[in-house]
Amino acid sequence: MKGKTLSPAGVARRARAALGARADPVRARGAERYFKETVKCYGVAAPEIHALAAGIYGLIKTDWTVDDAIGLCDILYADAELEAKAVGSLILKRFNRSYTPALFAKVKGWLASDRLASWAAVDGLCPDVMGAFLLRYPAYVDRIKAWAFHRNRWVKRASLVSFIKLARREEFLPAICEISASIFPVDDDLIHKANGWLLREAGKADPGRLERFLLARGPAIPRTTLRYAIERFPGAKRKALLLKTKPK
Predict the structure, then answer these.
(1) Of 114, 193, 194, 224, which is most buried, counting CB atoms within 10 Å of its CB?
(2) Angle value at C-alpha 60, between 57 and 65, nearest 5 degrees
(3) pTM exceeding the 0.85 threshold for the entire prediction
């Protein structure tokens, strides 16, 4: 970090101070009650978090490498508050043209060690960061399939939501279908919801393919996943799919 105007540690201190100055305890308690898992919040609204991250990025964009951004995430992901984690993810997202293969193991490590132990933290990182990574390094699609079988629920969720912004691209649909089906047996509502979300996004590009996939898998599909997946279908088709895939 020698010669840099702001180090990752310095930026982390700046971000924490800014979030603390904007903290709203009432909003924080309301946000924390929204989650089934235990989380902590400053109570800062999403537009303010995005503005803070954009402002910080403006200060460091000509001076930092992607390794500095990863270093910042290493620091902020250790914080309990969701907003601190969000700032790290939003800044890392902006270095997507510089991602290297080493990021794959780093992200898995953050997830597996519960540094991002909420659906909001996982979803704040993976659709943008891992989506851009997989677009840049498509050979890693085969490797991320194994995440669906990981014992950690956040790694499992990441195996799905990392494809959210890739779901309309034909080349990713076979992997999406494979991962989705492999995770049906998992008994975890947060996984079922993420799976349905991903299938719904894939269906926007090819609704016929989604319908055929759902009919072929039938009763094996968790009902929560199915309901999320068919949200964009007309009412009559939704009812028909619910009936045709109903467990005997």
Answers:
(1) 194
(2) 105
(3) yes
